[in-house]
């Protein structure tokens, strides 16, 4: 069944690709209102683009293929709680629902440092579900940073 | 003399291009540490990209030409106070200084709704100067929205 766990598993596969590329392992899947699935992974270092978080990449790609700067009715799956930049883009794109895995106590802007997606002063508030496959999503990140510290 | 007013005037010319394209008139200039100037304007509707704010476009382009996801020592000039998305990207890109024109009481994330760029929980705080050519920057926006209401 194509439920939240199903889609988060696909986002996790994307996060694994990021790790293989020595990028912080975060993956995302954007499910558009027409059922189209757009997948991507974090890649700022390899793409030379400070904005190339997994969420930004699926949002930009979905806008491109939809020929629309708004993605009404879409659902974003992402393995890590979005940061300020990505939360802002989610609001701009009018994404309908956001499902994330692990919380991010350092830079999370949905529930940790900020609560951007429920800020009623902004002109859109998506539905939010956190903690889907949180352990798997978090373990991938922890393993990545542990291995990087060992290399350093 | 190439001072803040000089660069903000160039950003204003970019904002005028946005207005001519029926986009909210915001313009930006990113001055890199080596003196390179990267200019762009707001274009989410015409580019089909929710993230295509003027700031994001100059950051992405500067990263591309620098082949670096960090823009240490750069100064960003932008005609309007950055939003959450752009403020987040400014932090990620490690931009050294941000100079903006008009404040944005609705979505500004530097001094109005949020104070992202001075949040010491995040791992970078650029120097900030607001209010440079604020009247010209704000008048361009007000004129744009007035003319759009008249058309509607």
Describe the fold and architecture.
The structure is a homodimer of 152-residue chains. With 152 residues, chain A is an alpha/beta fold. Chain A has one domain (4-151): Cytidine Deaminase, domain 2 (3-Layer(aba) Sandwich), CATH 3.40.140. Chain A is built from five helices and five strands. A five-stranded mixed sheet of chain A has the order 2-1-3-4-5. In chain A, helix 1 packs parallel to helix 5. The first copy, chain A, is globular and about 45 Å long. The model of chain A has no long low-confidence stretch (mean pLDDT 97). Chain A binds chain B through residues 44-45, 47-52, 56, 59-60, 63-64, 66-71, 83-89, 91-94, 106-107, 109, 113-114, 116, 119, 121-122, and chain B through 44-45, 47-52, 56, 59-60, 63-64, 66-71, 83-89, 91-94, 106-107, 109, 113-114, 116, 119, 121-122.
CATH architecture of chain A: 3-Layer(aba) Sandwich
How confident overall, as mean pLDDT of chain A?
97
Quaternary status: homodimer
Tell me the major beta sheet of chain A: 5 strands, mixed
Structural class of chain A: alpha/beta
CATH superfamily of chain A: Cytidine Deaminase, domain 2
H and E string of chain A: HEEHHEHEEH
Number of domains of chain A: 1
Q: Greatest chain-chain interface?
A: A-B, 39 and 39 residues
Number of strands of chain A: 5
Low-confidence stretches of chain A: none
Helix content of chain A: 40-55%
Could you tell me the CATH topology label of chain A. Cytidine Deaminase, domain 2
Read across the widest sheet of chain A, the strand sequence of neighbours is: 2-1-3-4-5
Shape of chain A: globular
**How large is the count of helical segments of chain A?**
5
């Amino acid at each position: 069944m194509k439920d939240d766990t199903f889609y988060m598993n696909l986002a996790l596969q994307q996060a694994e690709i990021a790790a293989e590329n020595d990028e912080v392992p975060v993956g995302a899947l954007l499910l558009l209102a027409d059922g189209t699935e757009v997948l991507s992974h974090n890649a700022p270092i390899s793409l030379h683009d400070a904005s190339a978080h997994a969420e930004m990449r699926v949002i930009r790609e979905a806008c491109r293929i939809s020929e629309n700067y708004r993605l009404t009715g879409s659902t974003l799956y992402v393995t890590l709680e979005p940061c300020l930049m990505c939360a802002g883009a989610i609001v701009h794109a009018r994404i309908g629902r956001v499902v994330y895995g692990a919380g991010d106590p350092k830079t999370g802007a949905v529930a940790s440092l900020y609560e951007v997606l429920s800020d009623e002063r902004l002109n859109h508030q998506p539905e939010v579900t956190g903690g889907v496959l949180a352990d798997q999503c978090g373990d991938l990140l922890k393993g990545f940073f542990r291995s990087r510290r060992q290399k350093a």
